[in-house]
């Protein structure tokens, strides 16, 4: 299984990067997690093309406030059902993901009704992917 997290904005916070890398490292024996961040151009068409190209062949999940909200156990079940798929999670920059891009995605997931900075959305998503894996494995981390 391969997970690609695509960010329409650069990750600048070093501590946050380290935390995200730590989750990816813990999961590296069972899945590959790749993070691709790029500087936003502010041009919706160019960003659309970039996101689509980078997520070609992946099951696309857009992160958006208005998306579906799951609890961690449900997310783990969803995740388990996607074990033989490659998943791309799309995270927008300051302007968010365009409507046309969200329509191209297979699903829209929300982390909360609160709006987070793109880096915080990345950290929450990474931790929930790790948590999902520990739930599936019955590992005590998820308690
Ligand atoms: C600063 S937010 C963008 C805010 C923008 N005004 C909008 O409405 O989308 C940057 C990105 O973080 C992600 N994000 C922020 N809060 C989120 C939430 N509660 N659930 C899911 N994704 C979220 C989304 O991918 C969003 O495009």
UniProtKB/TrEMBL annotation:
It is found in: Cytoplasm. The keyword rRNA processing applies. GO terms for cellular component: cytoplasm. CDD domains: RlmH-like. It is an enzyme of class 2 (transferase). Pfam families: SPOUT_MTase. Specifically methylates the pseudouridine at position 1915 (m3Psi1915) in 23S rRNA. GO terms for molecular function: rRNA (pseudouridine-N3-)-methyltransferase activity. This is Ribosomal RNA large subunit methyltransferase H. Keywords: Cytoplasm, Methyltransferase, rRNA processing, S-adenosyl-L-methionine, Transferase. Its EC number is 2.1.1.177. It catalyses: pseudouridine(1915) in 23S rRNA + S-adenosyl-L-methionine = N(3)-methylpseudouridine(1915) in 23S rRNA + S-adenosyl-L-homocysteine + H(+). SUPFAM superfamilies: alpha/beta knot. Its main location: cytoplasm. PANTHER family: METHYLTRANSFERASE, RIBOSOMAL RNA LARGE SUBUNIT METHYLTRANSFERASE H. It comes from Deferribacter autotrophicus. The keyword Membrane does not apply. S-adenosyl-L-methionine binds at residues 63, 92, 111-116. Belongs to the RNA methyltransferase RlmH family. Homodimer. Signal peptide: none annotated. HAMAP family: 23SrRNA_methyltr_H.
């Amino acid at each position: 299984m391969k997970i690609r997290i695509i960010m329409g904005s650069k990750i600048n916070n070093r501590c946050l990067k380290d935390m995200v890398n730590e989750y990816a490292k813990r999961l590296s024996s069972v899945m590959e997690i790749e993070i691709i961040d790029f500087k936003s151009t502010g041009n919706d068409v160019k960003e659309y093309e970039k996101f689509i190209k980078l997520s070609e062949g992946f099951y696309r999940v857009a992160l958006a406030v208005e998306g579906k909200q799951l609890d961690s156990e449900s997310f783990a079940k969803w995740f388990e059902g996607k074990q033989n798929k490659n998943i791309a999670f799309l995270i927008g920059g300051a302007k968010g993901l365009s409507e046309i891009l969200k329509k191209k995605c297979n699903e829209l997931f929300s982390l909360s009704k609160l709006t987070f900075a793109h880096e915080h959305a990345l950290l929450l998503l990474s931790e929930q992917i790790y948590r999902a894996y520990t739930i599936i494995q019955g590992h005590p981390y998820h308690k």
